[in-house]
Design a protein that fits this description.
25% of the residues lie in helices and 26% in strands. With 949 residues, the chain is of the alpha+beta class. It folds into six domains: 75 residues, no CATH class; 139 residues, Trefoil (Acidic Fibroblast Growth Factor, subunit A) (Trefoil), CATH 2.80.10; 375 residues, Glycosidases (TIM Barrel); 145 residues, Trefoil (Trefoil (Acidic Fibroblast Growth Factor, subunit A)), CATH 2.80.10.50; 106 residues, Immunoglobulin-like; 46 residues. It is globular, with a radius of gyration of 36 Å.
């Protein structure tokens, strides 16, 4: 009800879609009974000679109460009901945010990157590259939050000087002055109240040495003032492009099919996504006007089938804000791109088009602002390089395009600062959205030349259309010779210097949607998850911290049965939805070629969502929080010994290294879970099923990595933001014993002792210097005689500095490995580095092109035979007496000469070297090691080499 009151005019329109399902399911069953009974009563009244009026009254006296009671007693079946829409206006635990002040629009920052305890925290102009403006929020067991700076890992604290309470920085500790309450206000803003002083974070007039001003703490006098309100804008968006969600919800209610579900549990869709780490929602309304109005009683027209109205998306924006999520708003979406000109602007001159565009964007931003759904990021158009407002696209006329973009961006700023509807707000960020058809660097250099005042680069990326993600993928396959996405992103970051946001990404998990790309094929749930892990890793390696995140396209768009036949999927119906069902993050249950809505897997959440939500980021460490006890998984008593057991310990808010874990994908659908505590030998310790046991109750221990199945684990959703950690070899899950401390592996019992939260850690003891390594891809398939490559990605931690060399072992016969570069240098900033591993195999010997020369001894024998035949011929011709001596002398001389030619008088020629042995066919597990050139620090990973004939 809270949400209805705050946005009821927009909710009403969205609710009509939900009630439509009610009137098409319950009413047809309820009203026939009432009408039949009413007809019988009218006949009975006629038989009693009642007047016409009295007969009608008898019917009405029965019909109205009957219909009312019948409807109340026949609610919608549970399968078709929409779950309650929750209100939880909190950020993500472990998330990283910018703190943007509502009054100034400036961001909380360190004082000139200070690392001194007690120094002031200040506000500064926005920076997309500085880590000092990024603050991690960590939820404590008390319900309060800690805010820690990513640059120096100090915590936001309170300090009193000259009678003023200041916001300062101090090493993180269990202190009440470092605990904060986040009090939601509106449009995603919070008042940030100190748990000790009961004062809120505020601005002061005291200037900071490097610009900006110091932050203070002041008391609330009723509602928070603008200077006391702070927007938590994610530093890295983990988003969903789900602009059709309300239309999809209405269609599902109407068809009375099961709701989307997580681990078998139906829940609000946005809440499911938030539980898995999603922090942003993309909206793409098609406003009518200025676009042509569609009749609700006739089929929609082409692309307009795949759009939603302003009312629906306004409601969706409010729902997102009620869950503490950010909103990305794309305007001028015509259902496919932004190529068509709205009907209301068909006769505009170019000057009038600028005015109409400005007014439209201004009104849109104000409507979202007034509804409490102020966007955090705005895109003026969708994939504008493919068309923009009927010929005003950049390919046709970049000057006109720049003029229109500038007018629209000015309208965004004007609407945010308009005080006629309330206090001004900082403007949303604005991006320009293109496809890889136009190189990012060249496009945005042109945009800069035309002085378009945009803030960020937005791009779509789908491997099926746009090519390989990494150089290693391109080396393995690049059938259309397309650019490498990672190179494109890195070049744009270096050349343009703007943050980069992949506003649309997608990878299918099932066959049937066009052709399969060669890099994540055949499509499976695991391959889809791996794609999103790889996208996250590529973005994290973009230079200067300029990656802004990524959004997944239409994750909830599974097939919904249509009462007229077929499915609601771009079929021309007014409530049609997108057709690319093979790309969703919910299971389409489509293995038989048509969706089976009765399958247990129908609309079940797929594991790719956790990669989207940042649960498997190799640059982060995580704490695993047990659902039953709230304790953390740890190496027993902080042990660094290989073979040490596991237990759990109280979550103090500052996990030790033994309570932190990296989750590194092996690329085969499983993970290595690596202790941040390192080991005494310098080789990473990983979770291990002790001695490869397949018996329940065996302890799970730390051991050195050998890439075996006993050290591989899957992460499987248990619902409500919890997971099971499942061993590849045994199939058993991590469990906490009845004593509540020791950790064992047990069969799945759905017990809460077997369920764990995965929360990124930013407040901790500094990690020991070191590094870890993964291979991408982890499998190389070659024909005998071919070369292939994979990329080795090295993730340093704890500010490790030093040189690292590579080696490989376990190669099959006559296979070699080569590294480029052979040595990398880690510079102490924890910047990710990479090298290319090239594997070469030996081909099978080919057949000789000509027969080999005869053996020399055989030649000698043949000459003797020839000599004997010659003597016989001479004897027969009576020439013996005259030529016997000369013939014998010539034959003897020839024999001796041939003997000397036989190398040392042996009579045998030099033997030829045997042909090389081909690399044997089959699979080999090749271990790749990375070792520091000084010290014992090392890491290893394994790749599967598959050699065929």
């Amino acid at each position: 009800m809270i949400r209805l009151w705050s946005g009821w005019p927009h909710k009403l329109s969205g609710s009509l879609w939900h009630w439509r399902g009610f009137y098409t399911t319950t009413m047809p069953r309820c009203l026939p009974f009432c009408l039949t009974r009413g007809t019988w009563l009218r006949k009975a009244a006629r038989s009693r000679d009642r007047t016409h009026a009295r007969r009608n009254r008898v019917v009405l006296d029965w019909l109205l109460p009957c219909a009312f009671v019948c409807i109340l007693l026949q609610p919608l079946p549970a399968s078709g009901q929409q779950p309650a829409e929750p209100v939880d206006i909190t950020p993500l635990d472990g998330g990283v945010y910018y703190l943007v002040n509502q009054s100034s629009g400036l961001q909380a920052d360190l004082n000139a990157d200070s690392t001194s305890a007690g120094d002031h925290v200040v506000q500064q102009a926005r920076s997309f590259t500085s880590l000092s403006q990024r603050w991690a929020v960590t939820k404590l067991t008390s319900g309060s939050w800690k805010l820690s700076d990513l640059y120096n890992q100090f915590c936001l604290d309170s300090g009193v000087s000259s009678g003023t309470t200041w916001a300062v920085q101090n090493p993180c500790a269990n202190a009440a002055t470092q605990e904060w309450q986040l009090l939601a206000t509106s449009n995603g803003y919070y008042a940030i109240e100190n748990a000790s002083t009961n004062l809120v974070l505020d601005l002061s007039t005291q200037p900071a040495a490097g610009g900006g001003s110091w932050l203070s703490e002041t008391g609330l006098a009723g509602s928070a003032t603008q200077s006391q309100q702070w927007l938590l804008r994610p530093a890295f968006f983990h988003g969903i492009d789900n602009a059709l969600l309300e239309k999809q919800e209405a269609a599902r209610v109407s068809a009375n099919v099961t709701w989307w579900k997580d681990a078998g549990q139906s829940e609000d869709v946005l809440q499911m996504f938030k539980s898995h780490g999603v922090n942003a929602v993309r909206l793409r309304p098609t406003s009518m006007p200025p676009y042509a109005t569609q009749s609700s009683s006739s089929p929609c027209v082409q692309n307009l089938c795949t759009t939603e109205s302003d009312a629906q998306d306004l409601d969706l924006a409010k729902r997102a804000k009620n869950l503490g999520m950010s909103v990305e708003l794309t305007l001028l979406f015509d259902g496919g791109s932004s190529a068509s000109l709205p009907a209301a602007w068909a006769n505009d001159s170019f000057t009038q088009l600028q005015t109409d565009l400005y007014n439209y964007v201004f009104q849109e931003i104000e409507s979202y602002r007034q509804a409490g759904g102020m966007p955090d990021l705005v895109s003026i158009g969708n994939e504008v390089d493919t068309g923009f407002l009927n010929g005003n696209d950049p390919g046709a006329n970049f000057t006109n395009f720049a003029t229109l973009q500038t007018a629209a961006i000015n309208a965004v700023h004007a609407a945010a600062s308009d005080t006629s509807i309330g206090p001004a707000l900082p403007a949303p960020l604005v991006c320009i959205h293109i496809t890889p058809a136009w190189n990012l660097t060249s496009f945005f250099n042109e945009a800069n030349s035309d002085s378009i005042p945009y803030d960020a680069i937005c791009q779509s990326y789908y491997p099926i259309y746009h090519g390989p993600l990494t150089a290693a993928q391109a080396a393995a396959a690049n059938p259309n010779n397309q650019p490498v996405e990672q190179t494109v992103l890195n070049d744009a970051a270096n050349a343009v210097g703007k943050p980069i946001f992949l506003i649309e990404v997608g990878e299918h998990y099932e066959n049937g949607f066009q052709s399969n790309d060669p890099w994540y094929s055949p499509p499976t749930d695991a391959e889809q998850r791996q794609f999103l892990i790889d996208v996250n890793s590529v973005l994290r390696s973009v230079p200067d911290n300029l990656a802004m995140g990524f959004e997944y396209w239409d994750p909830a768009g599974v097939n919904i049965p249509n009462s007229a036949g077929g499915f609601l999927n771009g079929d021309g119906e007014p409530n049609a939805i997108y057709t690319w069902n093979g790309l969703t993050l919910f299971d389409n249950a489509d293995s038989s070629g048509t969706t089976n809505v009765n399958a247990s897997s129908y609309s079940a959440l797929l594991p790719g969502v956790d990669a989207l939500g940042g649960k498997f980021d190799p640059t982060l460490t995580y704490k695993l929080v047990n659902r039953s006890s709230g304790n953390l998984l740890e190496a027993a008593q902080g042990s660094q010994q290989s073979g040490a057991g596991l237990d759990t310990a109280t979550d103090t808010g500052q996990p030790s290294l033994s309570q932190q874990w990296q989750i590194l994908s092996n690329g085969d659908g499983y993970f290595r879970i690596v202790s941040a505590n390192g080991s005494q030998t310098g080789v990473p310790n990983v979770l291990d099923d002790a001695n490869g046991s397949t018996a329940a109750g065996s302890p799970v221990v730390q051991a050195t990595t050998d890439a075996s199945e006993e050290q591989e684990w899957d992460i499987v959703t248990a619902g409500n933001g919890y997971f099971q950690v499942v061993n590849h070899l045994s199939g058993f899950v991590l469990d906490v014993s009845s004593a509540g401390l020791a950790v064992q592996q047990q069969a799945d019992s759905s017990s809460q002792t077997q369920q764990w939260q995965i929360v990124s850690v930013h407040i901790s003891t500094t990690m020991a210097p070191g590094f870890s390594m993964v291979a991408n891809p982890p499998t190389v398939s070659l024909v005998q005689g071919e070369q292939g490559s994979t990329t080795l990605i090295v993730f340093p931690s704890g500010d490790y500095a030093g040189s690292v060399t590579f080696a490989c072992s376990g190669l099959p016969t006559n296979a070699t490995c080569n590294f480029s570069p052979s040595t990398i240098t880690l510079d102490g900033t924890d910047a990710v580095q990479s090298a290319t591993l090239t594997l070469t195999t030996q081909a099978a010997a080919s057949s000789p092109s000509r027969p080999p020369l005869p053996d020399l001894f055989l030649v000698q024998v043949l000459i003797l035979v020839f000599s004997a035949l010659t003597l016989g011929f001479l004897w027969f011709r009576r020439w013996f007496a005259r030529d016997l001596c000369s013939a014998l002398l010539a034959g003897l001389l020839l024999y001796v000469m041939l003997g000397f030619l036989g190398c040392g008088g042996s009579g045998q020629p030099p033997t030829q070297p045997p042909p090389p042995t081909p690399t044997p066919t089959g699979q080999s597990m090749v271990t790749i090691s990375a070792k520091a050139t000084s010290g014992s620090t090392s890491s290893s990973t394994a790749i599967l080499l598959n050699v065929t004939q």
